[in-house]
Design goal:
Blueprint (H helix, E strand, L loop, with lengths): L4 H7 L13 H32 L12 E9 L2 E3 L2 E3 L2 E8 L5
Antiparallel strand pairs: 1-4, 2-3
Length: 102
């Protein structure tokens, strides 16, 4: 639907100004930076869990002959510096290697 200039003028001050909802640049980019860091943190944590699962070669809470290690919880890595700024504490998965029984 196309609006004619004369129709828009008839609304006058009754129509809200959409530009009043736009934040100032610092606030806008600050929000993007926070969201970007949160997404990057989630991406890193998910990727490291997938890598750990591939390394362990066994489903959680299952025994398997080809198991290489056990899942051993997580540790928090604080102050991980990135191009987007420092990340919140990132949960890094840990493994405990199997002992070779002779």
């Amino acid at each position: 639907m196309r609006w004619l200039a004369s129709e828009l003028e008839s609304y006058g001050n009754r129509m809200p100004n959409p530009w009043s909802l736009v934040k100032d640049p610092e606030e806008f980019w600050g929000d993007w930076s926070t969201q970007g860091r949160r997404l990057l943190c989630n991406l890193l944590e998910g990727t490291m869990e997938i890598w750990r699962d591939e390394y362990v070669q066994a489903a959680p809470h299952r025994s398997a002959a080809e198991r290489r290690a056990y899942r051993n919880g997580y540790y928090l890595r604080k102050h991980w510096r990135t191009a987007l700024g420092p990340l919140d504490p990132v949960r890094v998965p840990r493994c405990r290697h199997l002992r070779k029984v002779a």
